[in-house]
């Protein structure tokens, strides 16, 4: 079979969106302005970033803002794990 689709329907893909050197505050501003319907060019000018960086940043995320990952409160921190080994 040439170009056959994968048979495993349960493939998990993790993607990391490149930030193009922008801070989390700038990324929040990109999302806010995009939600308001501003163009890539306007967003880029407002942030002092090239328009293609804004476009690529949004393209990589599929246009959907990812929720920040947070560790569950049930998990031990590194220092808490280290204390258990003593």
Quick recap of the structure?
This protein has 86 residues and is an all-alpha fold. The chain contains 4 helices and no strands.
Main pleated sheet: none
Secondary structure tally: strands: 0
Radius of gyration: 19 Å
| Residue share in β-strands | under 5%
On the 0-100 scale, what is the average pLDDT?
77
What is the helix content?
A: 40-55%
Structural class: mainly alpha
From the N-terminal CA to the C-terminal CA, the straight-line distance is 56 Å
| Unreliable residue stretches | 10-15
> How many H/I helical runs?
4
Q: What is the oligomeric state here?
A: single chain
Task: Give the SSE order as H and E letters.
Answer: HHHH
Overall geometry: elongated
